[in-house]
């Protein structure tokens, strides 16, 4: 007698995806412009982990201070965006919901830009300043979208409200850019396109608690999230406190999105493509779908970032370009399908 | 089991329910009938605890329904809304298992001890062989059967149904209502069902509540409620009443305007067999 289908799907898929993630991260750390062999790279990691003095200070600097934080950050950003995407899709009962398409990312981007370049509230929030502002503005953006689109979102409404919200926050962001200095302007531009370049350990530390906290909350509520797919009324009839559950889940997803945007700008389509693909592998049960999507999102972003670094070497593409090249056609295909089936 | 007293409800100052009272005893099936806009769906929303009445109280299992937590309420009362099950990619078995939610603890891994209830619900609703089929690949009638199996897995004492047969063909209408009746009789379930189809209501319900403009117009066994004068008063038409050739319950046939000899005369036609 099979006990629980979701466990049967969860364990092998998380197992193999974890392995794949490790491999992808190992490869990403090893590949790069500075001529370092795999062995040099792993020697650095080993010496750091064991606490022994580095044999080669140059290699140590490259691996430990440049590549590793970047790769780990890419993995965390991918995990956060994919996790948020699953939650938005489940709650809004629409497979096209994604933090970027909903405009939540652009809200977070405006908040983060204000925090980075105006430095508001640094004394109060210290290293969390950027994520906190990103979260505040992302929540406002989400409120707008939900206010415009209503509860169970038809595809057209979802996209149109996303467009409106993105247009508004995008304009505000342009305004911030316009009033900043030429040098800042270039930095913001690059950051908006989405990038994990030049990130350091403190960036990683700044989003880790948000990511872990958000993921824990979301996974613990994955069974109620399953019931939400039957509709909010049905979920209520089954004893779910609909409003409270919905609010907590939306806040958690927004928090993860904001944390990702705060360190890497707006990277689109991860939350759209990954949950969709993973639903095929792991089924619709969120207890399996969330962990599996989170891992796959991490792999996807590590791979995209590596591509972004390598394709036009020595120049770097913003990672958002790579994910959009994959994601936008995918989105178009899904949109076509959803319209055909009256989604 | 379920009892409501003096329910009032208004939306934007339009009174939808005006002092309605209703009660359902264990093992009883009560049908709610009435024209569109008479407040039937609102009644379901209030009885299910989904919305609160402006005045009046709903009692579930002897307590005001607002006293129960969401889970406690759902462990006692199941609802089949009009829309039925949406097109979800879950399997039949997964959806039926969702009915166990009110009996499970908070943790995501809870629920492995609920197999028995799920199995029973599946086999009683004739879905045991369809358990691995995806709900979004089922027909409307099959989906409604899954919804009932989900409600069975919920193991409630009261079942509320809002027009469960509206979109179904005659075979599915009959199967669905037969299943519910069997469940009601075997387990002493208290059932309140909103039905548009007067003939089905007459056939399956022990008692009918005829509503007009948010209040009770008539209540009692089908023979007492489905009378020509009452139907004229409430629906404004003069149907033909006859008896079911097999079960003998009253049946209502539409009388098309151009063929109704009594049209305009004001005299309802009643055929006694």
CATH topology of chain A: ABC transporter involved in vitamin B12 uptake, BtuC
Count of helical stretches of chain A = 15
CATH class of chain A: Mainly Alpha
Q: Indicate how many domains the architecture of chain B comprises.
A: 1
One letter per element, helices H and strands E, the order of chain A comes to HHHHHHHHHHHHHHH
Number of strands of chain A: 0
How would the global form of chain A be characterised? globular
What's the helix-strand series of chain B?
EEEHEEHEHHHEHEHEEHHEEE
Helix and strand content put the structural class of chain A at: mainly alpha
Task: Specify Rg of chain B, calculated over alpha carbons.
Answer: 20 Å
CATH architecture name of chain A? Orthogonal Bundle
As for the number of domains of chain A, it is: 1
Domain ABC transporter (chain B): 2-238
InterPro entries (chain B): AAA+_ATPase (IPR003593), ABC_transporter-like_ATP-bd (IPR003439), ABC_transporter-like_CS (IPR017871), P-loop_NTPase (IPR027417)
Region (Disordered) (chain B): 248-273
Keywords (chain B): ATP-binding, Nucleotide-binding, Translocase, Transport
Written description of the protein model:
The complex is a heterodimer of chains A (343) and B (273). Helix content of chain A is 78%, strand content 0%. Chain A has helices at residues 5-30, 38-50, 57-92, 104-118, 122-125, 129-149, 155-179, 182-192, 201-220, 222-228, 232-237, 242-264, 270-282, 286-310, 319-340. The longest helix of chain A has 36 residues, at 57-92. In chain A, 53% of the residues are buried. Chain B has a six-stranded mixed sheet with strand order 6-7-8-3-9-10, with helices on both faces. Chain B has a four-stranded antiparallel sheet with strand order 2-1-4-5, with helices on one face. Chain B has a three-stranded mixed sheet with strand order 12-11-13. Chain B has nine helices and 13 strands. Chain B has one domain: 3-Layer(aba) Sandwich (Rossmann fold), CATH 3.40.50.300. Chain B is an alpha/beta fold and 273 residues long. Mean pLDDT of chain B is 89; it is low at 262-268. The two termini of chain B are 37 Å apart. The chains are: A mainly alpha (343), B alpha/beta (273).
